[in-house]
Design goal:
single chain; 457 residues; mainly alpha; 2 strands; 1% strand; transmembrane; ammonium channel activity; Ammonium transporter AmtB-like domain-containing protein; membrane
Length: 457
């Protein structure tokens, strides 16, 4: 992303809004907390004890490895000047002039560079350094979510190679296409905070990776082996994820404005409604036993579903989306053939991210096309003039179609690129742990264990 000149003589240039800057940095911190520590206890608590450290390491490494990639080249691939209709020009975001200069939205960049004024825009009132920090947190969380499908068998060295490659070749394309001024951005596709860029991409890529890596040992995914090791630890991670979503969705107007408040409120309306809907489904299916794991899954699906429309829909629509996100993903996870959309022998999706992220992200994207309010769309610059199906059959129907086409692009790109990356990586290092490592767990992979003396429980 380009920057304007910074006056070295002033620590607070005239264009700086300290409130917006503080909110954006807080939002970046909240999103970063989702990636680490949020995902670490969430993953560790849901798996067998012998995988607690390895799963936490994968989340930690994702956040760490995403940063140098993001600062050196990937931020500008996602939010810089156009190279291709779906990709920006790679370049560093590290110079003093760049970091201290005023951040610019993508449409402003294109207006200055190419005379393209399809979408009006204003500059955020804080430095580019704040924008780079905020967007890095999104990139790190996204690739961390991919790990959820391949926990308990992907080799550490393969994961170390995969993260920077996927961040560069997959994440940046979705981000640029939908957020950074790419062809879907200018076509008017609505993805407020990452239902497609983050969740649909992560869910599809995770399942693709699970196919190439192969399933866990049968003992780790059936019977006693599939029972979570520490539900209280899982709940702690889930709480960080939930509250962190305040920054995830609330930071995407790029200002501490009224639309940010709407996005935050809608986020929690949808999440809580989804928890209730999922829990009701569990009670109806089991004869009266509400599941704690199920309630958390409902929380995640609600948060994912509202993400593409958080600041674009009214509160009643957020509640309707919560009902949908607590029922349809529950059905795909629990009632489809073989209890899944994909049989475990072919694609062992360890934590079901196909359902909690891909299905919910797709559902949220389509429902955004149904419920997006024209006035709220006008507050969110990239979708000026858009509206949902309930506010206009012609324009809204076209919007739903755009949402579906964009989803197909994200799905197709991530399946193809994730497959290509893993096929290249496996030439250099094995994608899968050895049988000895699969049997022993953390102690064999890292030389450490989370629970001394009871690692294999």
């Amino acid at each position: 992303m380009a920057s304007v000149a910074y006056e070295a003589s002033s620590a607070a240039p005239e264009w700086l809004n300290k409130g917006d800057n503080a909110w954006q940095m807080l939002s970046a911190t909240l999103v970063g907390l989702q990636g680490f520590p949020g995902l670490a206890p969430f993953y560790a608590g849901l798996l067998r004890r012998k995988w607690a450290l390895n799963s936490a390491f994968m989340a930690l490494y994702a956040m760490a490895a995403a940063m140098p990639c993001w600062a050196l080249w990937a931020h500008n691939m996602a939010f810089g000047r156009r190279l291709l209709p779906f990709l920006g020009r790679p370049g560093p975001a590290l110079s003093q002039g760049y970091m201290l200069g005023q951040a610019l939205l993508p449409s402003t960049l294109h207006a200055r560079a190419d005379g393209d004024v399809e979408t009006p825009a204003v500059a955020p009132l804080y430095p580019s350094a704040t924008m780079v920090l905020f967007q890095w947190a999104f990139a790190g969380v996204t690739v961390g979510l991919v790990a959820g499908a391949v926990l308990g068998r992907m080799s550490a060295r393969a994961w170390m190679a995969f993260v920077p490659l996927w961040t560069t070749l997959s994440y940046t394309v979705g981000a640029y296409s939908l957020w950074g001024g790419g062809f879907l951005f200018h076509w008017g596709v609505m993805d407020y905070s990452g239902g497609y860029v983050v969740h649909l991409a992560a869910g599809v890529s995770g399942c693709t990776a699970a196919y190439w890596v192969g399933p866990r040992r049968k003992a780790d995914r059936e019977g006693e082996g599939q029972k979570p090791s520490n539900l209280l630890l899982m709940l702690a991670g889930a709480g960080i994820l939930w509250m962190g979503w305040t920054g995830f969705n609330g930071g995407d107007p790029f200002a501490a404005n009224a639309d940010s408040s709407v996005a935050v409120l809608n986020t929690h309306i949808c999440a809580t409604t989804s928890i209730l809907a999922w829990t009701c489904c569990d009670v109806a299916a089991t004869g009266g036993k509400p599941s704690v794991v199920g309630a958390v899954q409902g929380m995640v699906t609600g948060l994912v579903c509202i993400t593409p429309g958080a600041g674009l829909v009214q509160g009643w629509a957020a509640m309707a989306m919560g009902v949908a996100s607590g029922t349809l993903p529950w059905y795909t996870m629990n009632r489809c053939p073989s209890t899944s959309l994909l049989p475990a022998e072919a694609v062992d999706d360890a934590l079901g991210i196909l359902h909690t992220h891909a299905v919910s992200g797709l559902l949220g994207g389509v429902l955004t096309g149904v419920f997006a309010h024209p006035a709220l769309c006008n507050l969110f610059l990239p979708v000026t003039g858009s509206m949902g199906l309930v506010y206009g059959v012609r324009a809204g129907g076209a919007q739903v179609l755009k949402q579906v086409v964009a989803a197909c692009f994200v799905i197709g790109w991530n399946v193809a690129v994730t497959s290509a990356i893993l096929l290249v990586v496996r030439v250099v290092v094995p994608l899968r742990m050895t049988e000895e490592e699969l049997a022993a767990g953390d102690i064999a992979v890292h030389g450490e264990e989370a629970y001394g003396g009871c690692n294999n429980l």
